[in-house]
Write a structure and sequence with these properties.
The complex is a heterodimer of chains A (404) and B (235).
Chain A: H1 4-26, E1 27-30, E2 35-38, H2 40-65, H3 69-84, H4 86-106, H5 109-134, H6 143-160, H7 164-186, H8 191-211, H9 213-216, H10 237-264, H11 266-276, H12 278-283, H13 288-314, H14 324-337, H15 342-358, H16 366-380
Chain B: E1 2-11, E2 14-24, E3 29-34, H1 40-47, E4 54-60, E5 63-64, H2 70-76, E6 78-81, H3 93-100, H4 107-120, H5 122-126, H6 137-149, E7 155-159, H7 167-183, E8 187-192, H8 195-201, E9 204-209, E10 212-218, H9 219-224, H10 226-233
Parallel strand pairs in B: 3-8, 3-9, 6-7, 7-8
Antiparallel strand pairs in B: 1-2, 1-4, 4-5, 9-10
Helix pairs in contact in B: 3-6
The chains are: A mainly alpha (404), B alpha/beta (235).
Chain lengths: 404, 235
């Protein structure tokens, strides 16, 4: 059944893994008694596990290369039929809506809070998706616009008493303004160089916030940022949390709606075209500069919006919340979920933000699992969990009906 | 209609075009022929301003094209089919065509033009919902030409439409170029390595060598010219 060569390969793999994990898993130095524990049992376990896992690994790779199509197409056609069934479609939408509305009343404040921050990342992800997924501009400093939004609410409220709902559009506009500001110098750059410059921009904003004490109150941050008020009524903590949750739900709906419309619009088409071929775009009369600036500005506007909500939600912000790691998380949730696909980005955000929260019991291994998951993703499904499917219109001979 | 006066283009220290003078009248098909690296593509790029650094003057319908961006030039009525086709591989055929009409706002006319092009290239109508990258080379060239025509140009710049295509397809494409010129009175500026074909289709021709125009004149005259025959026609 198994070829000898495969078994030898697996033995080699398990030997390599045993060697690699030897220092961490086998040797344990007891500094108190000055002895060394040799945990040979671990080594044997690792050896056996990697031996069998390597078989699984090769089997999966083979499956990916050929064969698996048949099974998949059956399953997917069944899936498609159920999704297309209008009864199923409407009832599932109603069900999801009910779930969304009932969520804060069923679960605890803690759960609602986690959900709100996950929704925030959905908005951030969808915003960055405009820049990276549609226009193909790799932006590693996206969190800078998030910071701009958060600080614009915090500072405007501190100095001028501007309320949350007034700050929302201001935050978005300021975000867009900074997007254009960053956009201008980087327009000539492509690929890696663009990534480096945007990365630098993100750090610049963070460093300014950290060091310009008179303006941003430095590393100590701004505290006591008020939560949004409900028509002037003071709410209890429980009520505010619920309220924030619903504000965030509305924002997510707005974002999904706008991004969806943008994708089908001319400017959205131009973004996709710009990603594919710049020379052709110019020959078609698409203004490269303007189109790229639009992408940066719209993407940044959503980050500004999310920033305002973030400041209101946590009621305390300081520059430490806006490190490069945040940008990386937002970018990786897009990649994990499926670049360019709205549904994919939402899924990615939920997985990325919710899983670590619920797996706190395994928090020691979080990074390990995270890294392993990323590697597996890139090998087996590089397009992301939910692949972007471009919508196209079929025009039948009898009357034009559009279909997905 | 289009007039190039003493155009010089540099890539860094290298001079790609030296004092190029070309004039094109309305309704003509003009061929620009020459060997590899003679500067033919650069000439087209200079007209559509994809290369911004140049000296000299370009006039289109009496308007100076200096300091105009590529999109402004398209809106004036000059469409460019870049060398190597440059279609959008992940967009469908109809989306590719739609992008060609990016600067136009008259939705009804756009639809009509699309239908006209589908009639001109029936194969594209068949492939309407297929991604551009899945088309064959000839189909891609047809798509690139149609996409440029979607902008309703008065002057069409064609860069090497025969590149990498089978002789039968090349013939088809040249037939259609003639047809476009006749039916919609579009002036065509054709850059080609296939000198024989290009001179047969065109009214007048220019011959380029090392960034300079060395011959010009009516196409049938150029075909008979002994020097051109030996250098470019291989006869």
């Amino acid at each position: 059944m198994f070829k000898l060569s495969e078994i030898i390969k697996s033995i080699a793999v398990s030997a390599w893994f045993m060697f690699l994990t030897f220092p961490i898993l086998v040797i344990k130095v007891n500094t108190y008694e000055k002895t060394i524990d040799w945990r040979w049992k671990n080594m044997i376990l690792i050896g056996i596990a990697s031996f069998f896992l390597s078989f699984l690994w090769r089997y999966m790779l083979k499956q990916k290369e050929y064969g698996s199509d048949k099974k998949k197409s059956k399953a997917s056609s069944f899936f498609k039929n159920t999704v297309k069934n209008p009864k199923f479609y409407t009832s599932s939408i109603v069900l999801i809506l009910c779930l969304i509305i009932a969520f804060p009343f069923v679960f605890s404040i803690y759960q609602t809070n986690i959900m709100t921050s996950a929704l925030m990342y959905v908005v951030l992800g969808l915003g960055l998706n405009i820049v990276v997924g549609l226009a193909g501009l790799l932006d590693l400093g996206y969190v800078a616009f998030f910071a701009v939004g958060a600080y614009s609410y915090a500072l405007l409220n501190h100095h001028f008493g501007i309320t949350f709902f007034m700050a929302l559009p201001i935050g978005a506009l300021l975000g867009a303004f900074f997007g254009i500001l960053l956009g201008f110098p980087v327009l000539r750059l492509k690929g890696d160089y663009l990534a480096i410059v945007t990365l630098g921009f993100g750090e610049i904003i963070r460093l300014i916030l950290e060091n310009w004490n008179d303006f941003s109150f430095g590393p100590s941050g701004i505290a006591n940022i008020p939560k949004p008020s409900f028509f002037g009524i003071n709410l209890s903590i429980y009520e505010t949390t619920t309220y924030m949750y619903f504000i965030m739900i509305l924002l997510v709906f707005l974002t999904v709606f706008v991004v969806n419309r943008l994708e089908d619009s001319r400017i959205g088409r131009a973004w996709i075209a710009l990603k594919e071929d710049e020379v052709a775009c110019q020959a078609m009369g698409i203004d490269k500069t303007k189109t790229k600036l639009y992408a940066f500005a719209t993407g940044a506007a959503w980050a500004g919006l999310a920033g305002v909500v973030f400041a209101a939600k946590t009621s305390f912000i300081n520059p430490a919340s806006f490190t490069f790691l945040e940008s990386a998380i937002i970018l990786s949730l897009i990649v994990l979920g499926g670049m360019g696909s709205i549904f994919g980005v939402i899924t990615g955000a939920f997985i990325f933000i919710l899983l670590p929260e619920y797996l706190r019991a395994f928090s020691d291994y979080r990074m390990l699992v995270f890294g392993a998951a990323m590697v597996l993703m890139m090998v087996f499904r590089p397009q992301g969990i939910i692949k972007k499917r471009r919508r196209f219109y079929k025009i039948s001979d009898s009357g034009g009906k559009k279909q997905r | 209609m289009l007039k190039l006066e003493d155009i010089n283009v540099f890539y860094g220290n290298i001079q790609a075009l030296t004092d190029v003078n070309i004039e094109i009248y309305e309704g003509e098909i003009i061929a620009l022929i020459g060997a590899n690296g003679a500067g033919k593509t650069t000439t087209l790029m200079a007209i559509s301003a994809i290369i911004p650094q140049k000296t000299g003057k370009i006039f289109f319908m009496g308007e100076d094209l200096r300091n105009r961006s590529p999109d402004q030039i398209v809106s004036l009525g000059i469409s460019h089919v870049p060398e190597g086709r440059h279609i959008f591989p992940h967009l469908t055929v109809s989306e590719n065509l739609d992008l060609g009409a990016f600067l136009r706002k008259d939705k009804k006319m756009i639809k009509e033009d699309m239908e006209y092009l589908y009639n001109l290239f029936p194969i594209l109508a068949k492939r309407k919902n297929q991604k551009g990258g899945t088309l064959s080379g000839g189909e891609q060239q047809m798509l690139a030409i149609s996409r440029a025509l979607m902008a309703k140009p008065r002057l069409l710049l064609l860069d090497e439409p025969s590149l990498g295509l089978a002789p039968i397809i090349v013939k088809q494409i040249f037939e259609i170029i003639k047809k476009i010129n006749k039916e919609s009175n579009t002036t065509i500026f054709l850059v080609e390595q296939n000198a024989n074909l290009a001179l047969k289709v065109s009214f007048r021709g220019y011959v380029m060598e090392n960034g300079k125009i060395i011959f010009k004149g009516p196409s049938d005259g150029l075909i008979k010219n002994k020097k051109i025959k030996s250098a470019y026609l291989g006869l």
